[in-house]
Design a protein that fits this description.
197 residues; two-stranded antiparallel sheet; 6 helices; 4 strands; 64% helix
């Protein structure tokens, strides 16, 4: 609510030290929009690379000491992991397959906790970062829905590769993906609603 001072003629004027919307309304809005867009673009680049680094980290933990990450590579252009699944157990292969998504989701939920403690001025930075990192899981679901089984490259289409490892049928695989996608969107929608109320 804006403070105001009443003059004898009955007109109201803004209190000293407070700018009106007409004077400064556009500048903060433009700055805020630019901050959100820049953060989202930078966050998407970082999230993609951390996703790939997650696969590499889990491959190293699974015993492939030659696993590596490359920022520039072909044909993706940037953000590639390299590892050898030969000799890994089924559980280790599943962990490597899910490693990228696990990393981005841990970051997304950590940012939610940080946002709760941070002041309002940090929301234009934290909110788009949360959206970008959380959306990685939905992007993986979407990519998997349109990729038929089987998929033998463990980190090309993560969930299709996982379903191949587990020997799922195409129907069961699609049902699980669609159910998880709806559930995940509902979870974030509920969280967003609670944060506004």
């Amino acid at each position: 609510m804006t403070s105001s001072i009443a003059f004898p003629n009955g007109r109201l004027a803004p209190a000293p030290g407070r700018a009106t919307r007409a004077q400064h309304g556009r500048r903060p809005s433009l700055r805020r929009t630019a901050t959100i867009v820049f953060t989202a673009v930078l966050g998407a680049f970082v999230a993609l690379n951390l996703h790939e680094l997650g696969h590499t980290a889990f491959a190293l933990l699974a015993g492939d000491h030659n696993a590596s990450y490359e920022l520039r590579c072909e044909p993706a252009g940037f953000g590639c992991n390299h590892f050898d699944p030969i000799g890994m157990t089924l559980a280790a292969k599943a962990a490597v397959t899910l490693g990228g998504v696990l990393v981005t989701q841990i970051i997304a939920w950590s940012l939610v906790l940080v946002r709760r403690r941070a002041g309002r001025r940090w929301r234009p930075v934290l909110t788009p970062l949360i959206v970008v990192f959380a959306a990685d899981l939905l992007a993986q679901f979407g990519q998997a829905i349109f990729t038929p089984l089987p998929e033998y490259d463990l980190t090309k289409v993560d969930f299709t590769a996982l379903a191949t490892l587990l020997g799922w049928s195409q129907a069961a695989y699609l049902a699980v993906l669609i159910g998880c996608s709806v559930g995940y969107v509902a979870l974030w929608a509920t969280l967003a609603y609670r944060s506004r109320s």
